[in-house]
Design goal:
Elements lengths: L1 H35 L13 H24 L5 H23 L7 H29 L2 H21 L7
Helix pairs in contact: 1-2, 1-3, 2-3, 2-4, 3-4, 4-5
Length: about 170
Amino acid sequence: MDDVRRKMWAGQVNNVLIFSLLLFSAMTATFYADLFFVLPEYIPNTPIKLYGLIFTGSTLLILTYTEKAFLKVNRDITILNLTLLGAITCFISEMQFQLVRVQTFDSDRLFLYVRSLFANGIIYSIIAFLIAFQLKTKRSGLVTLFVVVIFILFKTVLYFFPAISIR
């Protein structure tokens, strides 16, 4: 039984690395497309930035597919482990992407790298939890409630700590 478990987790590690590379590729392609091609900053007649929409959409798509692949390998995986595997996948790709991104800055590279890793790590962990919870429980109503509560908490923190900025 121990050998079966070891092989299963080895397969999960391979999936983490493969999906991290895929997510890093999507992030980098989106970044360079925005940097070098003349794309509109906003979607016409909306306040939605095109770069952010593509970046978020590709991340959600790949993270959902990643967690489904983890779940396919092990149907008995817990929500916590599924969340951790998804968050680790995003964190590895984010470390690589931030190394690429900070090269375009003139100063404070280490500070911006660490800040981005910390902030995005928290955000990706929350998203990974929401996806894991949805995939394991199939309870969309509760996921919607979680999203609303997280949004309210986020807005409350920004209200009481206006020095925290979102850029």
